[in-house]
Specification:
The complex is a heterodimer.
Chain A: H1 10-19, H2 23-38, E1 45-51, E2 58-61, H3 64-76, H4 80-87, E3 91-93, H5 103-108, E4 116-122, E5 129-136, H6 144-167, H7 175-198, H8 202-216, H9 220-229
Antiparallel strand pairs in A: 1-2, 1-5, 3-4, 4-5
Chain B: H1 4-10, H2 18-28, H3 33-42, H4 49-56, H5 64-80
Helix pairs in contact in B: 1-5, 2-5, 3-5
Classes of the chains: A alpha+beta, B mainly alpha.
């Protein structure tokens, strides 16, 4: 499958870096490039993990499934990709079903239908550690040539990853925290609007917002955003009360 | 999907113990506590992480609205597959 044309061009990588608003987005793009270049007949799931000296690890995955596989390892604080990352050597599990050393990992990811895992470190220096993780549902995927191709591919990402870390310094807040903060700001603003509109208290306003989300079966944050964008949709307290 | 959340809004605690279903979903959903708390805080929740932990382990009651928000957070997280 993967030949040496599995290497991205420098232009491709630079464009990605220039077009990415943040480090997470850049990593995400990188996993997509890796998955498309390395994948053969059986699609490959790719994830890249970066641990920087300051700040938490960033994980980007080409698909939701790859993300679940990666995060499972963080839950156990162990796994093939974390081993590759921390010990900086390639980890290959040719067949999860027969591998004794990784039997516990095989059990942990059994529901994802993955048969084989390859994790390759990426040299990024400066106290950071990175690894490219590939997952496949086909046990025969990682033959020696493919392993070599993936290693070469990982090596080719080293320079652009170093650059990306320079361009995007560690975020003070990890991604999920930042999105929660943004969400909270929007929810709070919508709650204030509901309060002013109904001259009600904070708790009643949150209740109204929650009820609006429930009855329309949409996410609370989306409803809050709608309310801010379109003031006519502000929920009102109906006479007789909602309780 | 059960609509106990809506019942919860109207008459909290009227249905089967809401903590049971929240705790069960939390355990079954493979959700981590900090992630859930962060999400819950993001949609306007006001209880702290320790209180959330105690609630999920059925060791503590929370105000009805907070319990509803926790339910919603669990549902939204599970739906997103985060």
């Amino acid at each position: 499958m993967a030949d040496n044309d599995a290497l991205p061009t420098a232009e491709q990588l630079q464009d990605l870096l220039l077009e990415s608003p943040g480090f997470t987005e850049f990593l995400l793009g990188l996993t997509a490039i890796s998955a498309s270049l390395l994948g053969g007949e059986t699609p490959l799931l790719c994830a890249i993990t970066v641990e920087r000296e300051a700040g938490p690890a960033t994980v980007a995955s080409s698909t939701e499934a790859a993300r679940a596989l990666d995060e499972r390892q963080y839950a156990y604080d162990n796994g093939p990709c974390l081993t590759a990352l921390r010990q900086q050597h390639t980890v290959l599990i040719p067949d999860l079903q027969t591998d004794e050393h990784w039997a516990w990992y095989a059990r942990a990811v059994a529901d994802e239908g993955i048969r084989t895992v390859l994790a390759v470190p990426i040299q990024t220096g400066n106290g950071s550690r990175s690894a490219l993780n590939c997952y496949s549902t086909d046990a025969g995927t990682f033959d020696p040539e493919t392993v070599a191709a993936v290693e070469e591919h990982a090596a080719s990402l080293s320079r652009i990853l170093r650059l990306a870390m320079r361009v995007h310094p560690t975020d003070a807040y990890p991604e999920h925290l930042r999105s929660a903060l943004q969400s909270r700001a929007i929810v709070d603003a919508a709650v204030s609007l509901i309060m002013v509109h109904n001259r009600c208290g904070h708790e009643d306003a949150v209740k109204l917002l929650h009820l609006a989300s429930r009855s329309s079966n949409r996410r609370l944050h989306d409803i809050a955003q709608d309310i801010l964008q379109n003031a006519s949709d502000i929920p009102v307290i109906t006479p007789g009360g909602e309780r | 999907m059960e609509d106990d959340g809506i019942l919860g809004i109207q008459r909290p605690g009227d249905d089967a113990d809401p903590r049971n279903s929240a705790a069960t979903r939390y355990r079954d959903g493979n959700i981590n506590l900090t992630g859930l708390w962060t999400y819950y805080c993001g949609i306007g929740g006001n209880a702290d992480e320790l209180a959330l932990d105690a609630y999920l382990h059925e060791m503590m009651e929370l105000p009805p609205l907070q319990m509803d928000l926790i339910h919603t957070a669990i549902e939204e997280i599970t739906a997103e597959g985060l």
